[in-house]
Amino acid sequence: MLEISVSADHIPAMPTRQTTVLDARAMDRALRRMADEIVEHNDGTDDLIIVGIQRRGVQLAARLVSHIKDRESVDVPSGALDITLYRDDLQTVGPRPVVGPTDLPWAIDGKHVVIVDDVLYTGRTVRAALDELADFGRPRRIGLAVLIDRGGRELPIQPDVVGKTMEIGGGERIDVMVEELDGKDAVVVAATGDA
Amino acid sequence: MSAAGALGKDLLGLEDLSGDQIRLILDTAEPFKEISERAIKKVPTLRGSTIVNLFFEASTRTRVSFEFAEKRLSADTVNVASSGSSVSKGETLVDTARNLEAMRIDMVVIRHGASGAARFLAERIESNVINAGDGTHEHPTQGLLDMLTLRDNFGRLDGIKVCICGDVLHSRVARSNIWGLRKMGAEVAVCGPRSLLPNAIGEFGVTVFEHIEDAIQWADALNILRLQLERMHAGYIPSLREYNRVFGVSRERLERAPKDLLILHPGPMNRGVEIDSDVADGPHSVILDQVTNGVAVRMAVLYLLAGGRPELAEAAKGGGR
């Protein structure tokens, strides 16, 4: 029986069953295309703000901003959102989840905000992010860009820009790794052992 | 991991906490600072939780700070002061708390004149209890906010030299600071007239300075305590003027220090007694930063103590992101 923690922050050192879905080059290609699509949807970079969700969404948002700069020669404003305090399961989880920094120094009223996260699954994180953004102002439009859409939604939420769509069983977990936190860029699927 | 999370059910004092638990609270306070800078200073984290602020002693800063922390986390709050409540009719502390608990509350923040009151209550009710100052024993959230302010300025607590000046005898702030700072690796000293130091000061593991000039030479930071005139029922000091002349922290004294000292004061200040105005309002004073940090620290404590019912976690498991 395989025992692997289901915590999103914990990447097991030596999982026995693990498949790489995207390697560093494939991940980079996906992010470049996503950056292009974000700019296309927005008809340019005016009023665009890219907001990454803690944790790995923040690093992916930085990549998107850098790719947009390559293509458009524009520094799109970006921010980071930690949605922990807006989670709908805080009364039931224990111990208390670690709260990360939220850093959104831009006025978002009337802007086109694109939320960036690594994996879209139940949609509850995005629901929390929408609530948190509403406390910062009233954007003209909020979009959603995710590197992986793994299905399994529990709320009526859909992404606008997707790196890769894949159906993943309940007994499997998908991990997005980023150079800054994990030492390499990759997307891997691993068995969780609890389904 | 204990059932109620990393901190347990209550926050009664820093003497009970480990260095890791103190670090957890200080680290958790960091992201909470940002919430108070927002246009809408509120997150939904404690929606549905009911908190009673039970204050048996006068307080402005601490009570308001707790109330802001609670409201910014969306908790429902009720303030009970001893005057004007059934306490003034002779009801005991436990009866008061049990009656409040019968109305289905989740947390009690208590300030009381008797040392040990918070623990006494915590052992008798189900709700989380936070000590907001009990007699001359502890004031843990003040100790924590002082440590957060020191850490903000020095980047660390380990190895810094903090001197607690003045009325240590009557000060719960002093005890919380001494226990907390020593667990975090800081060097702690006290300085004040012998009559205002506890007899057992030797057991606290702190250096004792007889002269404020020596303390200023030694320290990186001074935490200047208020002379608690309301607790002095005997002749502890000859006069306020003499106290100021011998122990008052003045600009002239600080100018003779080998480096700039960070100046803390838990408030309310007796200007011209333990601290001179040009020091309190001077460039190295972080007295108002302490007040700002107080809200963030209290939000962190509320967040870490509240909720977290692991028996429901199993049911929620598999919810994922």
Top-tier CATH class of the largest domain in chain B: Alpha Beta
Helices and strands of chain B: which structural class? alpha/beta
Instruction: Tell me the distance between the termini of chain A.
Output: 11 Å
Report low-confidence residues of chain A grouped into runs of 5 or more. Answer: 1-8
- Proportion of residues in helical segments of chain B: 25-40%
Per the CATH scheme, the topology name of the domain at 25-87 and 107-168 in chain A is Rossmann fold
Q: Give the H and E element order of chain A.
A: EHEHEEHEEEHE
- Beta content of chain B comes to 5-15%
Q: Round the mean pLDDT of chain B to the nearest integer and report it.
A: 90
Strand order of the largest sheet of chain A: 3-2-4-5-6
| Biggest β-sheet description of chain A | 5 strands, parallel
Q: For the largest interface in this structure, which chains are involved and how many residues does each contribute?
A: A-B, 35 and 36 residues
CATH superfamily of the largest domain in chain B: Aspartate/ornithine carbamoyltransferase
User: In total, how many beta strands of chain A?
Assistant: 8
Give the assembly state of these chains: heterodimer
Characterize the biggest β-sheet of chain B. Answer: 5 strands, parallel
Distance linking N and C termini of chain B: 23 Å
Number of strands of chain B: 9
